[in-house]
Amino acid sequence: MIPIPSGVRVWIATGHTDMRRGMRSLALTVQESLKRDPHAGDLYIFRGRRGDLVKILWHDGLGMSLYAKRLDRGKFIWPSASAGAVSISAAQMAYMLEGIDWRNPQLSWRPQSAG
Length: 115
What we know:
Elements: E1 10-13, H1 23-32, E2 43-47, E3 53-59, E4 64-70, E5 85-88, H2 90-97
Parallel strand pairs: 1-2
Antiparallel strand pairs: 1-5, 2-3, 3-4
């Protein structure tokens, strides 16, 4: 889990991204396509075409970090918009990185009786 300080915004880059891109290329995408400052301290999440790989770009004030996560099964739930960015909370990001639908998280198991 990424140790996110309070006040950091999480942005999902809608659509799909070429996952061969590195740190500098993704930072340039944030600056030119999303019209945001990649060095402002926000997290930017990008998803590949297949939907099972995400890359997270984050500048923590000291330097740029690039995280990647691939799901063994399933796909990351992604907004349907084709351009721009969608802001989510850190808790929603944690759900998303676990492969859970962050838009409407549900308990996977619920007890049927108390005894």
